[in-house]
């Protein structure tokens, strides 16, 4: 006896709303998802009393339909509707959320506003950089549906060991916007692809991109008081759409192809053996405080998404007006969904969390010992292989360098390393002992986690460039329109004898040496080194240490510097290659000072006399010898005194001899050598270290140099 199978009904409409066929949708995933015959829309709001889906066609100013969600289309706090017969490629959408407007209770609902979907994979309305959104439109930013047909050609995240990383922090637009970049699409993901050969030749293994989530570069109302030009929100630390790549960073953004263009950038970097890390901002949004615009979260459920005082005002631990309520269960889920999306759909290798200490604050602002969000990210199966890096402080005074709740997963930007190296290079007294600790991966901070928990840096996007660090005593932020009040005053910088540009050859020579000193200390320290794009070529911001607002030559990479300062570029390239060639500089464990099975202790300290370090508060000299059990030996000496001195060298076994890799006191090209071609030191018992200089030796056989490869 035959049976008739039940007819499938979930792909068929059950209702007609605003002239469109619809049915109750699937609650998960949130956002807009293509389904057979239509698109499923799902949005969360716990406190809204009604929700309306607003649909647009691309290029048309007004909506073609507004669809209120029937009561039966809501389950709990989730509204879900499948709409049939609409074209995902040309459909744009938003929401109207109705509910109470009682700011003192945290509610700011306004059904007259059309809101961006927090889960939108594409945002339209600002596809061309520098063109403001059309605020005359009722809904200037429209959510869109991303195509899902990219051919990855078998690509997957690279999974490089942390100890092998050399991180290169870059701004997508600034990297190729300068005319000297000579790329086909300046300031875009595609433009960056054209510079991959340069990155590969330099030797970096990870590119850390400053924010690429959709943001509004035009939300800065200040002007440059000197030129009168409008300033920008150039850096992008003010997110509008967390799931959407920035359209104006894509040459194809005006055609809605920014998703594919960013995926292609990741794929091409992976082909070159370079990982991709994203700088992500979950601590605040572009909506600001109560005076800011209503874009998305505020209109959907202000009390859920933001940390509010008892009278409905915004906590401001971010310094930008609001603070995301990261440890609310719904917000935790949002952050996790976002990172999973970028890791799975874009093959991103890791994330650096801006002002990450906020991720560990409770809803009332307290610092949590075991923050649920951080624990969730650390243990998530999708993010298991992603690098997770915390900027372990916030603008509310919570400083957690060395104490961030890491769950054995998070590394940290090591602000202590930055400050110590800067002070040593400047010649400050009393920092030599601290420098020794920083050089071996900061075991006082990361004893349990090992050196790879420490992301070492001397400069970052926030602050002086390396050129400016040795060229200015004071910040010069007059062009920011804030009366030079913005930016950090504690730069630990030194101008080497003249403030700013100079023709003095002695000052210029000292500045060049100091830059090389910084690179050499950074690249011979245990941990993960991070370089800022352009530092290797002497890029300047003209003394501006807070160039967040400048979309001009202050922020752009002038590629003519690569030729003009080719000696510095060559030095950095050699130093990166030397680090890669020597496992003694890439250890996962802190040294113990014990010999073990090696020729010498894993790390030993020296001064003017071998085996006799000088730890007094007046010392400006430090030497370290690193040795692996396989016989890789590297000797690093740093002198911040204005006078040179003779160094007695540790005696090597008879079959080995000291070879000189780098000496920053030597004129170029003798200041560094390609690994494997280091000249043998004539006097094996001592060497002269110049004033304010760093030198690096390696032990090779008397007949040939040992490359120290794994």
TrEMBL record:
<dbReference type="InterPro" id="IPR048650">
    <property type="entry name" value="ISOA1-3-like_C"/>
</dbReference>
<keyword id="KW-0809">Transit peptide</keyword>
<dbReference type="GO" id="GO:0004135">
    <property type="term" value="F:amylo-alpha-1,6-glucosidase activity"/>
</dbReference>
<comment type="similarity">
    <text>Belongs to the glycosyl hydrolase 13 family.</text>
</comment>
<keyword id="KW-0326">Glycosidase</keyword>
<dbReference type="InterPro" id="IPR006047">
    <property type="entry name" value="GH13_cat_dom"/>
</dbReference>
<dbReference type="GO" id="GO:0005980">
    <property type="term" value="P:glycogen catabolic process"/>
</dbReference>
<dbReference type="InterPro" id="IPR004193">
    <property type="entry name" value="Glyco_hydro_13_N"/>
</dbReference>
<feature type="region of interest" description="Disordered">
    <location>
        <begin position="475"/>
        <end position="498"/>
    </location>
</feature>
<feature type="region of interest" description="Disordered">
    <location>
        <begin position="664"/>
        <end position="687"/>
    </location>
</feature>
<dbReference type="InterPro" id="IPR013780">
    <property type="entry name" value="Glyco_hydro_b"/>
</dbReference>
<dbReference type="Pfam" id="PF21156">
    <property type="entry name" value="ISOA1-3_C"/>
</dbReference>
<dbReference type="GO" id="GO:0019156">
    <property type="term" value="F:isoamylase activity"/>
</dbReference>
<dbReference type="InterPro" id="IPR017853">
    <property type="entry name" value="GH"/>
</dbReference>
<dbReference type="Pfam" id="PF00128">
    <property type="entry name" value="Alpha-amylase"/>
</dbReference>
<keyword id="KW-0378">Hydrolase</keyword>
<dbReference type="InterPro" id="IPR013783">
    <property type="entry name" value="Ig-like_fold"/>
</dbReference>
<feature type="compositionally biased region" description="Basic and acidic residues">
    <location>
        <begin position="475"/>
        <end position="489"/>
    </location>
</feature>
<dbReference type="InterPro" id="IPR014756">
    <property type="entry name" value="Ig_E-set"/>
</dbReference>
<dbReference type="Pfam" id="PF02922">
    <property type="entry name" value="CBM_48"/>
</dbReference>
<dbReference type="InterPro" id="IPR011837">
    <property type="entry name" value="Glycogen_debranch_GlgX"/>
</dbReference>
<protein>
    <submittedName>
        <fullName>Glycogen operon protein</fullName>
        <ecNumber>3.2.1.-</ecNumber>
    </submittedName>
</protein>
<feature type="compositionally biased region" description="Basic and acidic residues">
    <location>
        <begin position="671"/>
        <end position="681"/>
    </location>
</feature>
<feature type="domain" description="Glycosyl hydrolase family 13 catalytic">
    <location>
        <begin position="169"/>
        <end position="579"/>
    </location>
</feature>
């Amino acid at each position: 006896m035959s049976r008739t199978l039940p007819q499938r009904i979930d792909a068929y409409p059950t209702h007609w709303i605003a002239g469109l066929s619809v049915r109750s949708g699937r609650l998960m995933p949130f956002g807009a998802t293509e389904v057979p015959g239509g698109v499923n829309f799902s949005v969360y709001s716990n406190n809204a009393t009604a929700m309306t889906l607003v649909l647009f066609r691309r290029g048309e100013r007004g909506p073609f339909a507004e669809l209120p969600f029937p009561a039966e289309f809501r389950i709990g706090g989730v509204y879900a509707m499948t709409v049939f017969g609409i074209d995902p490629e040309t459909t744009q959408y938003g929401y109207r959320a109705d509910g109470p407007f009682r700011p003192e209770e945290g509610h700011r609902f306004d059904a007259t506003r059309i809101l961006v979907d927090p889960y939108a994979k594409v945002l339209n309305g600002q596809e061309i950089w520098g063109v403001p959104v059309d605020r005359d439109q009722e809904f200037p930013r429209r959510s869109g549906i991303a195509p899902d047909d990219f051919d990855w050609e078998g690509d997957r995240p690279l999974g490089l060991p942390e100890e092998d990383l050399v991180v290169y922090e870059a701004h997508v637009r600034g990297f190729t916007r300068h005319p000297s970049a000579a790329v086909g699409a300046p300031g875009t993901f595609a433009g960056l692809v054209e510079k991959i050969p340069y990155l590969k030749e330099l030797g970096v293994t990870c590119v850390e991109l400053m924010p690429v989530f959709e943001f509004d570069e035009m939300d800065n109302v200040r002007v440059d008081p000197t030129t009168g030009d409008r300033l920008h929100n150039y850096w992008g630390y003010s997110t509008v759409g967390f799931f959407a790549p920035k359209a104006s960073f894509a040459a194809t953004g005006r055609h809605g192809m920014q998703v594919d263009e960013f995926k292609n950038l990741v794929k091409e970097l992976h082909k070159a053996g370079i990982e991709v890390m994203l700088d992500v901002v979950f601590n605040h949004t572009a909506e600001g405080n109560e005076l800011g615009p209503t874009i998305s979260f505020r209109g959907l459920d202000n009390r859920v998404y933001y940390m509010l005082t008892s009278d409905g005002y915004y906590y401001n631990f971010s310094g930008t007006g609001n603070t995301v309520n990261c440890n609310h269960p719904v917000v935790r889920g949002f952050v996790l969904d976002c990172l999973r999306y970028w890791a799975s759909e874009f093959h991103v290798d890791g994330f650096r969390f801006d002002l990450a200490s906020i991720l560990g604050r409770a809803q009332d602002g307290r610092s949590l010992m075991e923050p649920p969000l951080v624990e969730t990210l650390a243990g998530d199966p999708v993010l298991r292989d992603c690098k997770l890096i915390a900027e372990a402080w916030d603008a509310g005074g919570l400083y957690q360098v060395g104490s961030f709740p890491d769950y054995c997963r998070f590394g940290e930007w090591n602000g202590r390393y930055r400050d110590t190296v800067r002070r040593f290079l400047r010649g400050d007294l009393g920092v030599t002992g601290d420098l020794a600790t920083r050089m071996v991966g900061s075991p006082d901070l990361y004893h349990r986690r090992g050196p790879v928990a420490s992301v070492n840096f001397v400069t970052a996007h926030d602050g002086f460039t390396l050129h400016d660090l040795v060229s200015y005593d004071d910040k010069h932020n007059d062009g920011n329109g804030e009366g030079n009040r913005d930016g950090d005053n504690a730069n630990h910088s030194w101008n080497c004898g003249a403030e700013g540009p100079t023709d003095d050859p002695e000052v210029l020579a000292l500045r060049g040496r100091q830059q090389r000193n910084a690179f050499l200390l950074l690249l011979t320290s245990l941990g993960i080194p991070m370089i800022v794009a352009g530092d290797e070529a002497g890029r300047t911001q003209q003394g501006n240490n807070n160039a967040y607002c400048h979309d001009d030559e202050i922020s752009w990479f002038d590629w003519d510097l690569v030729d003009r300062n080719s000696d510095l570029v060559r030095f950095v390239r050699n130093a990166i290659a030397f680090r890669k060639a020597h496992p003694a500089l890439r250890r996962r464990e802190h040294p113990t000072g014990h010999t073990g099975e090696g020729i010498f202790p894993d790390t030993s300290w020296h001064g003017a006399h071998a085996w006799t370090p000088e730890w007094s508060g007046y010392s400006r000299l430090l030497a370290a010898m690193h040795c692996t059990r396989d016989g890789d030996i590297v000797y690093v000496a740093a002198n911040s005194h204005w006078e040179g001195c003779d160094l007695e060298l540790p005696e090597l076994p008879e079959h080995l001899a000291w070879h000189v890799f780098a000496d920053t006191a030597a004129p170029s090209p003798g200041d560094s050598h390609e690994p494997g071609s280091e000249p043998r030191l004539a006097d094996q018992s001592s060497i002269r270290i110049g004033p304010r200089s760093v030198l690096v030796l390696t032990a090779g056989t008397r007949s040939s140099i040992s490359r120290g490869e794994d």
